[in-house]
Amino acid sequence: MKKESTGLQTVNRACDVLRTFRNETELLRLTDVSSRAALDHATTLRILRTLTANGFVERVGRYEYRSRIRLVSQKQRRIGYAAQSTEFSFSREVTDSIRQAAVREEVILIEVDNRYSRKAATRNASFLIKEGVDLVMEFQTDEQIAPIISSMYQQAGIPVIAIEIPHPGATFFGANNFDAGVMGGRFLGRWVQEHWKDQFEEVLLLELPRAGPLPASRLTGILDGLRETLGPVPAAKITRLNGNGQYSRSLEVVRKHLRTRPPRRTLVGAINDPSAIGALRAFEESGRSEFCAVIGQNATIEARLEMRRLGSRLVGSVGYFPERYGEVLIEMALNLLEKKYVPPAVFVEHKLVTPQNLHRLYPNDLLIPPLEVDSLLLQYAAKA
Q1: Quick check: 110 pLDDT over 90?
Q2: What is residue 377's predicted lDDT score, i.e. its pLDDT?
Q3: Helix axis angle, 177-195 relative to 213-230, nearest 10°?
Q4: The domain spanning residue 33 has which CATH number?
Q5: How far is it, in rounded angstroms, from Cα 245 to Cα 186?
Q6: In this structure, are 241 and 105 located in the same domain?
Q7: Are residues 196 and 303 in the same domain?
């Protein structure tokens, strides 16, 4: 009986190893297989060698393995994805990257659009529950309805990954907001030291209150970065405006603000790039562009094109690299469904994107056809 039990255990472990390969094209290293199968390296290596010798697994190069069989009985995962909106290029890039990763991993993706709307997000949650998806990736902006949406999924027994905005009980994936803000604030402070000899009269912060305190910590970080670089920033110098994370709203509120103020050197910290560009356009309209320096968040294509514009006062934007989101999100989703360990919060890596380094970080921007560039730069004007 002992031999039979040991034999069955070995077969089960071999099956666990085969199941770590999600499709026939995926290449895994020994450490990847060991982690996914929850086996030690030595046991995993012995099983891989046996499977390779019998033609079930193929060794590729010196360090990687590929499955040579398809587990037809394995259920194809159905994952719901509630996109933030098609209004923002950031959201569209997140969506594109998720679609590509879902195709690679042979995941059935059930998509809905939250349209930057409370009602749409709630309605979409009901739809995904009725669809019986295995897991949901939720990207909606409103903090106040996050508990409602989380409760709906919890009652249905559907695990959730919350993108950018925390949802109770959900695994979080998104920005390290405070650190991203500090990164932008430090750079803005160094810009002031170099161009304005440490002198400025106002700090203008473009907020997004509906998103709650976590995204708001980007702006707290910007202030901390400025203080770290320039010293104390008196409260009397700080102005906060609700730009709602949108170009048109930010343009409108900064327009009104500038009408009540004389020209003054102003540092603008925005919750995202649409707000940053909206504020910048308001300064340009009023003939005060030389009185502002703007730092954005997200490093979207519009921001990168704006930074390439000669004389632009968008001095930088903190990169979030939404084109990489899909690969990580789909892997997190599959690991959660396979009961593998996933940290409660996974943060993206940020880098500061400036006119000086964007050619290195985003060389493919130069391949965008001129007509498409014009279209991207003009789209905000149409929303004003």
Answers
A1: yes
A2: 54
A3: 30
A4: 1.10.10.10
A5: 22
A6: no
A7: yes
